[in-house]
């Protein structure tokens, strides 16, 4: 009996040890004149880069990071990649030169329909030049649609063909502009994805990148890879540093599998390896604390949480953390897309 108990405890401890992990930062505008929700100032961006360097973070290009994570990177290395979304000129004029000044390279997920579309947009020549300078250019769809939404009277088959066309058109444009093969990696527009979209991405041979905080290890959902969103509202180094030091929960499953909901207070269950009772597990929405329920059986914990007040119409996130020691936290973020009975929320 004692031997069985010791074996169970040792297995439980093993399953919740920090896994090989890395994190990805995600920026949009590097421009003080852009909306605060989708931008940082050049001063904030350069401060982040200086802090990364001073604190010993190893900044690598995204493809290098993914390769190292799949091979089992040591979490003590503090591995990070820097990415940008959309075709904003400030990425080309401010963001990438700041990386280059430090000998670093970035990855830009480009919505190809936005290239050349107005004074804040990149040009095709800029896209070609970024590739020439060694930055990674990747797919962010062509027209940046809400992929989770069907058009009026659109069948499921029509919807799948339209989304596939969005991805393929962007991939073709990037290959044409760079004169090179483009990795089949897609950043979900608005960070919105569903089980069906993840399945479509998988069937097409793509990786899918989200817009939710968290860390990567080799066991993550490769169609919903976490990236830490950075903007002026959450640009303070102390809070960003905690996210940069995040470790992934040993996640077996997330229920439901889909974040689209009409419920005002949706329930989320995380199925985790190991015993998570008494492990300082905390969950939040909009800065408000939620009290999770933890059930443990047969080496697996089910963590169930529900907001105490209504979540807003639109996108919101449940965030869960737990102390991992050495100043680091396990971190998992789940994106809800709450629509109304009458239709989708405006953007």
Describe this structure in words.
The chain has 347 residues and is α/β, with parallel strands linked by helices. It folds into two domains: 20-245, Alpha-Beta Barrel (TIM Barrel), CATH 3.20.20; 253-338, Immunoglobulin-like (Sandwich). The protein contains eight helices and 19 strands. The strands form five sheets. Strands 1, 4, 5, 6, 7 and 10 form a six-stranded parallel sheet that branches. Strands 12-19-18-14-15 form a five-stranded mixed sheet, with no helix packed on it. α2 packs parallel to α4. The model is unreliable at 1-19 (pLDDT under 50).
Topology:
Elements: H1 2-15, E1 23-27, E2 29-30, E3 39-40, H2 42-54, E4 58-59, H3 62-71, E5 79-85, H4 89-100, E6 107-110, H5 124-132, E7 136-139, H6 156-178, E8 185-187, H7 195-203, E9 207-209, E10 228-229, H8 237-244, E11 251-255, E12 260-261, E13 267-273, E14 282-285, E15 288-290, E16 293-297, E17 300-306, E18 314-325, E19 328-338
Parallel strand pairs: 1-5, 1-10, 2-3, 4-5, 5-6, 6-7, 8-9, 12-19
Antiparallel strand pairs: 11-13, 13-17, 14-15, 14-18, 16-17, 18-19
Provide the helix percentage.
25-40%
Q: Based on the structure given, which CATH architecture of the largest domain is correct? A: Alpha-Beta Barrel
Put simply, the count of helices is 8
How many beta strands in the DSSP annotation?
19
Structural class label:
alpha/beta
Mean pLDDT: 92
